[in-house]
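quick one before i forget lol
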Amino acid sequence: MYAYYDINGDGSPELLIGADKSISGIYVLQNGTPLSVIQVESRHVLRLLMDIDGNSVIEDSWGHMGYATDFFYTIDEEGKLVVLDKLFTNGDVKKGDEFIGHFRAKDVLGKEVSINEDEYCSLIRKYGSTGYEPLEDTGKERMIGVIWKPVAT
């Protein structure tokens, strides 16, 4: 299925490929030609969210065996993907199913820094997500609804 949604507010909607709440690829249209901005494999979850300021945010989340990533992006006015934040959990748990470590890296080249669970949850809430891992204080998800259309009938 496909949908159109103006993620960056430039008046030119981006092309989304996926279905329901799951997006597998996002494309910008330049001179009528779709150009890939981001694509994910089946284990990843790509969603459109609304941050606390009302801006559209792309979330790419993935997890396995307690390790989780929540990456947040937007698209700039030139149609390029821009990293907003990258959040990680280390996958190790202690008694009571509490995570030992949460980490944050601001960009691909940024150094990972340790943050506590409150800081992690605050960042997750900022972007309108509930995060990949089931934590207590992530708030309510602010997912953007898109209208999906079938590719063929």
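fyi DSSP finds one helix and twelve strands in the chain.
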